[in-house]
Specification:
446 residues; alpha/beta; MutS, DNA mismatch repair protein, Chain A, domain 3; Rossmann fold; 6-stranded mixed beta sheet; 4-stranded antiparallel beta sheet; 14 helices; 43% helix; binds adenosine-5'-diphosphate; binds magnesium ion
Amino acid sequence: AARLAKALVDEPPYLVKDGGVIREGYDKTVDECRRLADGGKDEILAIEAREQKDSGIATLKVRYNRVFGYYIEITKTHLAKVPARYIRKQTIATGERYVTPELAELEKKVLTAEETLLAREAELFKAEVMAVAEVAAQVSAAGAALALADACASLADVAARRGYCRPVVDDGLVLELTDARHPVIEAMLPSGSFVPNDCRLDPDAEQLVLITGPNMAGKSTYMRQVAQIALLAQIGSFVPAKAAQIGVCDRVFTRVGAADNLSRGDSTFMVEMRETAQILGKATRRSLVILDEVGRGTSTFDGVSIAWAVAEHLHDAIGARTLFATHYHELVALADSRPRVRNVSVAVREHKNEIVFLRRVVPGGANKSYGVDVARLAGLPKQVIARSREIMTRLEGGAQLGSTTQLSLLPTAAPSPVVGKIASIDINNMTPLEALKLLADLKALV
Ligand SMILES: Nc1ncnc2c1ncn2[C@@H]1O[C@H](COP(=O)(O)OP(=O)(O)O)[C@@H](O)[C@H]1O
Ligand SMILES: [Mg+2]
């Protein structure tokens, strides 16, 4: 660094070919070329002073024009004193103009100075680059060490300023948080206004926590904060909570928000299903799974059915710790048939026909979706809101809408005759020949 500081200017240009890279006083050639490129003023003054002295002509001037370049001008009164070595170039009304080999030389230097300067700067710069390249490994190791220190210091700083706690990360499978907060939303809200919440997940007891509650209640926020805390804890950071115990997760799977991939021709629903398929394929009992409104991308009936089946599979087959948010409150019935499903909801209160979000996660499922209320909050026209309530009342009374039911894309096929045939095989009482014959029969059936 000391070497670079000596050689380079404080703020070098982006490109070496712009020049002005090398610091003044570092290299003689560079300094001289810069002076010359600037018109060689010092040299000219020096030559002028010397020629005045040598010739004894005090009014002798060194000048420049485009035609001759540098020349010496002498007024008529002093022509007799002109030295013999001067080469006369032009006679003017007031005197004569001369050049000397020295001036011609200077002129050439001035004209080429710019080029020489750039070349020399590039050469010197390259030398610096080579010197740096030799220690590149040390430089990047130092950079990495600094980056690590910076990241740790930042985490420590946030932890100290925002009252984080030191989590316990162990080999168990329980994830338990007390008064957990969302690290980002908490910081965006006025201090103290974020409502902290607890969370407990345990593959043996509360494995799948189903979070219901109207839109805007705070479901997504709650789930994301749990995932972020697990992640923070596992990278060794303090976490935004009063207390936290995290049985190490092998992976955190999330299916949140719909970052559409329409440019690639995928619909929101397709993306959602593909991600869900990935999760179901890869999650283990040690994973943490966050599913936000799975099934939202399609019609209500499809959506509820898919959400329901996905939740069942996570419970029955995978056993991963799961937070499952849905505004389909029908799903709360899942807890009746599945022992490790818990219902929680994000509390809202109705106050004088207004809906108030309490942001508090409480035991038990939501029994009402409040969608119409949220729509009203958002400013949908009065007539539309009133009409929605009317339709909803009728639907809740068991009425059918003409065209809500979607046809399934994949009709369930009738069982193939091959299946029946295979089911009836008695392998123990079969000769190899009969087996071959059967195989041929089966082949004929498909
Ligand atoms: N615990 C909380 N304390 C304070 N505000 C919250 C809390 N949780 C959520 N919010 C606010 O509510 C908004 C909606 O929350 P979100 O999680 O998106 O709701 P949902 O997923 O239920 O529709 C958030 O943008 C946030 O500003
Ligand atoms: Mg949400």
